[in-house]
Write a structure and sequence with these properties.
A: 266 residues; alpha+beta; Immunoglobulin-like; eight-stranded antiparallel β-sheet; 41% helix; B: mainly alpha; Arc Repressor Mutant, subunit A; 10 helices; globular
């Protein structure tokens, strides 16, 4: 290979083009190979990298929107909380939902067990309704009420157990497409800070997460969702957001605390 | 080569270079000391306890002192306010995580932060381009307005490092369009042909401007070395 160190002008020119980024392809690879061998070449490249890096100091200052700092603050605050939130919060925040699809066998098993349980409850409910049905013969005045109850019977078709990164179940989510009702039950001890909200997201196979709603403070939360919002999502996730949540097009801004696969029960 | 006459834009872009050169002020070493002290306090937070709160306060101060400058860089690279804000967020979270590495870099603080914001911005564009193949940098008029329009704060080289001041002096000697092409090549990490496409210039013109720009900078920067 040519000894660039003996051609200072050429070396300087190549080093400048290398640092600027306009030296490309084979020429770039050859320069890099020379730099690994020769301290003089390395020095020239580093000097020019440093020089061009100063371009970042020469741009016009522009004021960012006021909520950028709030987002940074929220993420750092979430990272600090000891229990479930950990590094997934920030660096890869744009992509965190990718992993959610592979939420793991634990969640699947738990979800099946839970759905059986739920179906048992539905059965008991059926019995009660049946008893009411026998009463109907004698208590005609209850007909309207009964009809309403029959109609209100939940038809659970989707179940998800959302767990934290230690696979501890923390939220049970069921979806009743007949009534467009999502029911979220808190089962773990997690309690968000007073100035934060938990937000539920559908994670479709393509495109970003879509918000399904913000959880209130009650142990059981009901949200309205259309079946097509839920059906196409292989997984659900809950993120920690500023109080009141964030708009869906923005996507989650805080760390994802819980996630899990969405399973069809029938 | 005869350059097209007159206005300050190339392919819809205004550069800082297109306007009157900012006034010449020497770097302020006090400012650097202040920024370094803040970065050190952020790094020291891992000791825990009261240091954590102090680290957070330091990050806030650093943000207040530098965010508009870093946002300007992010905006220049990604050309969209919302994206630039995402980049800015990632940048300060990055600084929060790697503040402990600063001392080893030997760079002036703003230069170190400038490299971080450019990397995060280029990451953002790569990610976006890989997610949406059709989104090859859409450069529209809105951004030239964004970049040139509402900037009451002219370039203040008193905050810049010696190195930046030298580069600034040398860039001033280039013709506006050459300056612009060289700046964008670096900030957006663009090849000759990508520059030609984005700036709607013939490839030969871009190559000539880059070559001449580098030659003139070599001569000029050597005097500051």
């Amino acid at each position: 290979m040519m000894d660039l160190a003996r051609h200072p002008e050429l070396l300087d020119r190549l080093a400048a083009a290398y640092a600027l980024g306009t030296l490309r392809g084979g020429a770039r690879r050859r320069f890099e190979a020379l730099a690994r061998q020769s301290p003089a070449v390395r020095t020239a490249a580093l000097l020019w990298q440093e020089r061009f890096a100063a371009l970042t100091e020469l741009q016009w200052a522009q004021a960012p929107g006021p909520d950028v700092w709030k987002r940074i603050e929220n993420i750092i605050a979430a990272q600090k909380q000891p229990a479930v939130e950990r590094p997934q919060a920030s660096g890869s925040s744009v992509r965190w939902w990718r992993g959610a699809t592979f939420a793991g066998a634990v969640a699947t098993v738990a979800a099946v067990a839970f759905s059986l349980n739920l179906l048992g409850e539905v059965d008991r409910r059926d019995e009660q309704l049946a008893q009411l049905g026998s009463a109907r013969a004698t208590l005609a005045s209850q007909n309207a009420q009964l009809a309403a109850q029959l109609q209100a019977k939940p038809e659970i078709q989707y179940v998800a157990v959302l767990s934290d990164d230690r696979s501890a179940a923390s939220m049970l989510v069921t979806f009743d497409p007949a009534h467009n009702t999502l029911t979220i039950k808190r089962v773990g001890g997690y309690q968000e800070a007073a100035d934060k909200s938990l937000q539920l997201w559908a994670l479709p196979p393509s495109g970003g997460p879509r918000s399904l709603g913000v959880l209130g403070e009650n142990p059981v939360v009901k949200l309205t969702a259309a079946e097509n919002q839920v059906r196409e999502a292989p997984a659900l996730a809950i993120s920690l957001e500023p109080k009141g949540g964030v708009p869906t097009e923005r996507g989650p801004t805080g760390p994802v605390l819980f996630k899990g696969a969405l399973l069809k029960t029938s | 080569m005869k350059l097209p006459a007159g206005n300050e834009t190339i392919g819809g872009f205004h550069a800082y270079s297109g306007r009157n050169p900012p006034s010449r002020t020497m770097p302020d070493p006090f400012q650097d000391q202040q920024l370094i002290a803040l970065i050190d306090r952020i790094a020291a937070r891992s000791a825990g306890g009261a240091r954590q709160a102090d680290g957070e306060a330091a990050l806030r101060e650093l943000y207040d002192l530098t965010s508009s400058r870093l946002y300007g860089v992010a905006l220049r690279v990604v050309t969209n306010r919302e994206w630039a804000e995402d980049v800015l967020q990632e940048t300060y979270l990055n600084i929060w995580r790697i503040a402990g590495d600063y001392r080893a870099s030997l760079s002036p603080p703003l230069a170190w932060m400038g490299v971080i914001v450019r990397s995060r911005a280029l990451d953002f564009l790569r990610r976006r381009n890989s997610e949406r193949a059709d989104s090859a940098l859409e450069l529209n008029d809105a951004i030239s307005e964004t970049v040139a329009g509402d900037s009451p704060d002219p370039l203040d080289t008193s905050q810049a490092s010696e190195q930046a001041w030298a580069l600034h002096e040398c860039l001033r000697k280039l013709e506006a369009r050459q300056r612009e092409v060289v700046s964008l090549a670096y900030l957006r990490d663009l090849s000759h042909s990508e520059l030609a496409e984005q700036l709607k210039l013939p490839l030969g013109t871009v190559k000539t401007w880059i070559r001449r720009g580098i030659e003139q900078l070599r001569g000029c920067m050597a005097r500051f070395a």
